[in-house]
Write a structure and sequence with these properties.
about 450 residues; mainly alpha
């Protein structure tokens, strides 16, 4: 839209943040924020236009893709649970994992191995490792923090991931970067400071080398008392108790092959078919069907009933995803990102450009939940500024990606946080209460480093 809403474009975000903090919920504040945005955009005719935007959002191919992914992973995770293959993996891990710290370190390593996609990372690792970390009384919100803090940083640092594929395409379309997306991306990896800092902080957190916040200490004490779920998570706790009863009643023989082979086919299928995660997950599910019938683990009826149950478990998450993307659409129509960028342009200098780029993209990622879209809009603005100011282009690209990664960590209604919370069975707000202080510390450290690099690079 041509109309400029200025500072009013931030109103839907403010409404979402304020009401989420008050209610400790996410879906309702998101819907309210989209309605506020619709009122700004359409006035008295906001309701039919809001419904139109909702339908347009639900039919968008990218949104459909994002809705399908958790549904398919729900099937895969349910397969692992009902086949008792998770028990086999846990029994193997317990032979080597003897402490709370090591259980989180195993999660950290597993996250590095599953580097190709943060969705895969969030859903697979959270769903798999929670049984192991529960044994060592790790609070679920701490598991969520560790899971989410490995996924995206590793994905951007390895040039063979969904983030890398997207950014290479973005860079390849830029004349200022010579149309060589791969070279531009690889040259920027040494300047992706925030992902590196995050992985270091996370390791120090796991092995108790950085101070624990009051909330983390309270969570640890609560878990020591036998409740790994955050206070107020009665539904999740009841579900957990039901899961325990089902696990105890599950007499299926734990076979490690029932876990390992589907994971191998998931990774291989994703890589072979041009990083298409949906194809990889479908191949993994098909592997479960064939393997579990071949070795007698599950009957046909059990396989299909388990599949349906897995999809049902993800329905609330899918609703949340639709609300997230509807808010993203509203923000785009209001021109939120453009307003913020043009507001900070007057204060940008060559030395400050990398640091300001980091902060602007981080802020927009946190407030809009649209990390890739933000980078797509910011890139054609910062590249000419960098060229005119004679600032290293790889440095600026690293700062931009760093800001995007920060946003994926702390946007409480973002897809990365949402998927991780779903797989670890905690609320988004519970995860953010653990992760935000450490993410902000990482952002501050990264900003200082980028200021220094602005002088010397």
């Amino acid at each position: 839209m041509d109309e400029t809403f200025g500072i009013l474009s931030l109103l839907p975000i403010a409404v979402v943040v304020i009401f989420a903090l008050i209610t400790k919920r996410v879906i309702e504040p998101l819907i309210l924020g989209t309605i506020v945005g619709a009122v700004l955009l359409y006035g008295f005719s906001f309701f039919p236009n809001w419904v139109g935007d909702l339908l347009a959002t639900m039919s968008d191919p990218d949104v459909v893709w994002t809705m399908v992914i958790p549904a398919l992973f729900g099937v895969l995770i349910a397969m692992f649970g009902n086949s008792n293959s998770g028990t086999a993996f846990r029994e193997l891990a317990i032979k080597y994992v003897k402490s709370r710290e090591n259980s989180l370190f195993a999660t950290y390593i597993f996250g590095i191995i599953i580097f190709m996609d943060e969705y895969m990372n969030a859903l697979l690792i959270g769903g798999t490792m929670r049984n192991l970390t529960d044994k060592f009384k790790v609070p679920r919100e701490v598991l969520a923090y560790v899971t989410n803090s490995v996924g995206t940083p590793v994905s951007v640092l390895v040039p063979f991931s969904s983030w890398a594929v997207f950014l290479m395409g973005l860079y390849g379309a830029s004349e200022l970067l010579g149309g060589n997306g791969f070279t531009s991306y690889v040259s920027s990896i040494p300047f992706m400071i925030y992902p590196m800092v995050t992985l270091i902080i996370l390791l120090l957190f796991i092995f108790n080398k950085v101070p624990k916040t009051r909330y983390v200490k309270e969570a640890m004490r609560r878990a020591e008392g036998g409740n790994v779920f955050p206070d107020g998570s009665n539904v999740a706790a009841n579900d957990f108790n039901e899961e325990l009863k089902k696990d105890e009643a599950n007499t299926k023989k734990p076979r490690l092959i029932n876990f390992i082979l589907p994971i191998i086919t998931l990774v291989a299928g994703t890589v072979i078919f041009d990083m298409d995660l949906i194809i990889g997950v479908i191949i993994a599910i098909a592997t479960c069907f064939i393997l579990y019938r071949f070795n007698g683990t599950m009957t046909y009826s059990e396989l299909f009933e388990t599949s349906i149950k897995g999809i049902q478990d993800m329905v609330e998450l899918i609703i949340l995803i639709v609300a997230i993307f509807l808010l993203v659409r509203v923000n785009e129509n209001l021109g939120t990102i453009e307003f913020v960028i043009h507001s900070v342009k007057p204060i940008i200098t060559p030395i400050l450009l990398p640091g300001i780029t980091l902060l602007v993209v981080a802020f927009l990622g946190f407030t809009t939940g649209n990390y890739w879209g933000t980078m797509g809009i910011v890139l054609p603005i910062i590249l000419p500024l960098a060229q005119i100011s004679d600032v290293n282009l790889s440095l600026v690209l690293g700062a931009m990606v760093s800001g995007g990664v920060f946003g994926s960590h702390v946007c409480f209604f973002g897809d990365a946080v949402t998927l991780t919370s779903a797989s670890t069975q905690v609320s988004n707000m519970a995860q953010i209460r653990v992760s935000l202080p450490y993410a902000l510390a990482g952002l501050l450290i990264s900003f200082v480093i980028f200021l220094g690099l602005g002088f010397i690079v």
